[in-house]
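At your convenience, could you comment on the folded chain following this short note?
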Amino acid sequence: MRAYLERLEYRVRCYRFFFLPPLYLALAAFLPALRQYRFAWVAVTLALFALGANFFPAFQVHYIAAATCLCVLLSVTGLEWLGRLTIGGRPAGAEAARLVFFLCVAHFLLWYGLHVFDTGEISRAVQSYETWDNINHGNPERRIAVNRQLDQAPGDVLVFVRYAPRHLFQEEWVWNAADIDGARVVWARDLGPEENARLIAYYPARTPLLFEPDPRPMRLTPYQP
């Protein structure tokens, strides 16, 4: 149960992909629509979809692609209800809905412009704050650079990958050949000194290394328990 709740807490952020930050106002405006059965059904369906998909330990973003139409419906309905807003008996919602729309356009153009200069210093500095979008930044260039470093390491190696807390789950580095034991490079997640020691004992002839992909620049160093 604990593992299920931890996965849910982690994965619920994936739904931010469907809602640009300005649309949070539209989602708040959608709440009054829940009094209608058809819109309450939409919210319940999304909740059941999220809870059901969370039973599977592995996760890819396309697993929740089927919920796209419901997320769009929430945003459009929220903007519609926002457009009905009145303040002091005077209509004010239409202007608010248009403002949210233009903020969404501005938000898109901002990030699109940053990705045009994806290798620029400013773009790299702000990418960690971007909504999860499954864009594989800097690959395969980053993998090529790491593989070149590994090519210079003598003998067989065992590479522990240590992710930062804010690491994007789409950027997975642990991929191994079909014949893992026969491969020159074996990749493994850093699971802590005790678990890592078991793997080192299984591969006593391999040189253990530590790879940290999230710092800038990336770090490949000798593994120290």
